[in-house]
Amino acid sequence: MTKTTIYVQYAGREVKMDDVEKQVKQYWKADGHKLGEMKEVIYYIKPEENGIYYSVNDDEQKGRVEL
User: Fold this and answer.
1) Is the pLDDT of residue 21 over 90?
2) Position 1 confidence tier, pLDDT thresholds 50, 70, 90
3) Torsion sign, CA atoms 45, 51, 57, 60
């Protein structure tokens, strides 16, 4: 498999998606879940709102990560 790196760039800022994924996993674990229970994560990138919204396992957990 080819390694892929994704960056979100907006208004002079740059955020690596790997860092966003790490934060989402930390939030998931802090909420009492195990990483093995995480089956699907959907990201909604909204640079105009300075954030990336996410949904885990069909809305089992939702949240926002700052850009």
Assistant:
1) yes
2) confident
3) negative
Dihedral, 20, 22, 27, 31 alpha carbons, nearest 10: 150
Nearest by Cα to 25 from 65, 12, 6: 65
C-alpha 37/C-alpha 20 separation (Å) is 18
Report pTM. 0.86
> Which 3-state string (H, E, C) describes 3-65?
CCCCEEEECCEEEEHHHHHHHHHHHHHHCCCCHHHCCCEEEEEEHHHCEEEEEECCCCEEEEE
